[in-house]
Specification:
116 residues; Nucleotidyltransferase, domain 5; five-stranded mixed beta sheet; two-stranded antiparallel sheet; 3 helices; disordered N terminus
Length: 116
């Protein structure tokens, strides 16, 4: 969350994940992530979305980006984003925070919040 003149900015943060829970590890590949976990920092609720494009042949990045747009995500935490996906995310105004390593979704979320 960012502090702008005393106001807390409310937003949805999406983290790419290997599994459906906050205790699962961050997935470093955006378009092929098995799950997208979206946290709403206004309500504290988490939503787990299975990525239907994770196993598709090609062009998965822009389609995966549309999932984030449809769910109101403003920030993406992931390890790597391909060129076409990057264009789609930039066009949608979604900020990307790059994170690598064996970290749980929950720890990635806390780290991302501290960087806002």
């Amino acid at each position: 969350m960012s502090n702008n003149g005393g106001e807390v900015k409310l937003m949805k943060i999406c983290i790419t994940s290997k599994g459906p829970g906050k205790e699962d590890l961050l997935e470093e590949r955006f378009g092929r992530a098995p799950y997208f976990l979206i946290s709403d920092n206004e309500t504290g609720e988490w939503k787990s979305i299975e990525n239907p494009f994770a196993g598709a042949a090609g062009g998965v990045g822009p389609r995966a980006a549309q999932i984030l747009v449809d769910n109101g995500a403003k920030i993406l935490v992931t390890g790597n984003v391909g060129g076409n996906a990057l264009n789609a995310l930039n066009a949608a105004g979604i900020k990307i925070i790059y994170m690598n390593g064996s970290v749980t979704v929950e720890k990635a979320y806390e780290k991302a919040k501290s960087e806002l």
